[in-house]
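User: Okay, second chain of the day. Same drill as before: sequence in, structure tokens out.
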Amino acid sequence: MTPGDPAPDKAMPDRDAAHDSPIVRTGDIVQNAPAMDMNDTTTSERVDGIVAQTRADHAADGQERIIEVLKQRLDQAGIELTDDEVAELARG
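Assistant: Same drill. Structure tokens below.
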């Protein structure tokens, strides 16, 4: 055994190469994706979460920055909204 090797009595979890994370096994169910990816959410719930997180992350940065980041995050999530809708969400 070389330094850094796990102790022989400690099993190393299988790794999910796509996510570089351990595969979590619960009974017969194998979780091989992030937990949030496994939950069904409505678009409205996703928008609410993105807006809340963006406001929390950028509250001190001003309205224009919140709008800019909201547009980026909504785009990354595949959610299309008009500029007016994004501005309204940013205002709260």
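Residues 84 and 90 are 10 Å apart (CA to CA).

User: Thanks, on to the next one.
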